[in-house]
Amino acid sequence: MARKRTTHRSVSGTKLYAVRDSKGRFVDIQTYKRAHAADLRKTSKSEKKKK
């Protein structure tokens, strides 16, 4: 199951994604641009089955 990401804004205004663990602590924080590019590179299981 994919982890839920919440969006935040940095002081400079950059959009950020934050991933938290089950206790609510930050596990990973990355920029929207980097996270979105990684999402586009990855193919889902349903996309792989269609080929």
Note the gap between the termini: 23 Å
* Integer average pLDDT: 85
Radius of gyration: 14 Å
Count every beta strand, where a strand is a DSSP E run of 2 or more residues.
Answer: 3
Number of helices: 2
Major sheet characteristics: 3 strands, antiparallel
Helical residue percent band: 25-40%
Number of separate domains: 1
Structural class: alpha+beta
Taken in chain order, the helices and strands follow as EEEHH
Q: Looking at the structure, what is the overall shape?
A: flat
**What ranges have pLDDT less than 50 throughout 5 or more consecutive residues?**
none
Strand order of the largest sheet: 1-2-3
Identify the quaternary structure here: single chain
**Which range does the strand content fall in?**
25-35%
Defining traits:
single chain; 51 residues; alpha+beta; three-stranded antiparallel β-sheet; 2 helices; 3 strands
What does this protein look like?
By secondary structure, the protein is an alpha+beta fold. The protein has one domain. 31% of the residues lie in helices and 33% in strands. It is built from 2 helices and 3 strands. Strands 1-2-3 form a 3-stranded antiparallel β-sheet. The mean pLDDT is 85.
What is the compact description of this entry?
With 51 residues, the protein is α+β, with helices and mostly antiparallel strands.
Indicate the topology:
Blueprint: E1 5-9, E2 15-20, E3 26-31, H1 32-41, H2 45-50
Antiparallel strand pairs: 1-2, 2-3
